[in-house]
Amino acid sequence: MASYHLSVKTIKRSAGRTATAAGAYRAGERIECQREGRIHDYTRKQGIEETFIVVPETAPAWAQNRSKLWNEAEASETRRNSVTAREWELALPSEISAGDRSQITRQFAEELVSRYGVAVDVAIHAPHREGDQRNHHAHVLTSTRKLEAEGFTAKTRVLDSAKTGGVEIEQMRGVWAELQNRALERVGEVERVDHRSLEAQREAALDKGDTLLAEELDRDPELKLGPAANSMERRAKAMADREGREYVPVTERGAVVHVARQVRAAFRELRAAFHEVRERVGLARETYGEDREAGQGPVSAGLAALRAATSKERGARPSDSIRERLAQITGRDSPDRAEPECGVQSDEEPKRSAQERLREVLDKDQGAERDAGAEDAEKPSIRQRLDDVLNKPRERLEIEDEQEKDREVENDREIDREIDRDPGLSH
Questions:
Q1: Is residue 101 part of a domain?
Q2: Which residue, among 46, 50, 48, 72, has the nearest Cα to 59 in the 3D structure?
Q3: Which of 13, 147, 178, 295 counts the highest number of beta carbons within 10 A?
Q4: Domain that holds residue 249
């Protein structure tokens, strides 16, 4: 599942930082800072996948030169505690391709240019070879002044103000979440990222009636592994991947985190299955109501609702995978078990739709009818009884419904008379 991360930091002189050094390090280039007279050479830096600069259409040509761009940004600031640049750090989804990661990062940079009129310098970094291999990320360095035809001009105070800065950053967080979700949707990913806090997500889930999601979000933070345990677990997972075996945590904290993640993954599958069932029930209820309004009897409308609910071919049943996942988590799965549990379909048996299973039952019943003796010939088969129900006229079905109700009323009266005759209840 893709995770969301966007943080904003400032490059300020009071902390001993410069825009020229920041630009050189993130892009892996050599930049000479003209204000300080220092050379920042990071040409040997590894893991830089792509760099590019996005500026307004009216910007001068020198803005595409990284060294010139950030030296001009430094020269435009005169105070010794000035903020010379702003960095937006973005986590990129590992589920999408490198081209898609580049595209959504460029779109985010273009949005910054369009919204604030600043210069944007982008560097996309690959995961560190010793770290999590899903950690694709981008460093988006922006100027703190607008870039126009004459160079850097006014400050972007909307981002500096305490009243408007938080609102602006929150809106850009939403833009970044939407760009990721579009890219994830294109590759078929169901899970979406959310830039809101867990509390805000939980309240939104409760408003929509999704109690399962609300309960999943209402949980304690994940246990912190720490640098040493995290490094040990990464090495163990990498070794398991190379050897083609299942990853087994090597530390106590790692085992706790691993189990918690497995449980959350199973919970997400359960929530997806729950939504599918709710969708089918809603479809059946809607079909039943429409048929009843059209004058259909309760039995005919019920059969139509049943056909509507089972009309879509179902693939792999989520309940099976969830049950297997929970069995692995609790350690109750048995590799030597030859037969599947009651009600659980084995992995070797292909998943079948409800129509296919019903057809198989009918075919078996028809074969059994041919093999039966003459003494059983009078007993109707399942197919005959089903055809009889489906082909009954509507009036006949309604008459039988009324007769069934009369029989139930008469049975209730008989029970009442028996109770009145019981001497043990008279007092």
A1: yes
A2: 72
A3: 147
A4: 227-334
pLDDT at 379: 55
CA angle 172, 175, 176 (to 5 degrees): 90
Question: Is pLDDT at 392 greater than 60 in this prediction?
Answer: no
pLDDT at position 427, please?
41
Task: Indicate the range of 54-68, 132-146, 213-227 predicted with least confidence.
Answer: 213-227
pLDDT of 3-50, one tens digit each? 788 999 999 999 999 999 999 999 999 999 999 999 999 999 999 999
Q: How many domains does the chain have?
A: 2
In angstroms, how far is CA 208 from the centroid of its own chain?
Answer: 17
The pair phi, psi for residue 144, each rounded to 5°, is: -100, 0
**Same domain for 184 and 83:** yes
Q: Hey, what are 37's tokens?
A: 């007279």
182 and 236 together in one domain: no
Taking all residues of the chain, what is their mean pLDDT, rounded to a whole number? 77
Count of CB atoms situated within 10 Å of the CB of 124: 23
Could you report the per-residue pLDDT of 128-179, keeping only the tens digit for each? Answer: 877 778 889 999 999 999 999 999 999 999 998 888 998 999 999 999 999 9
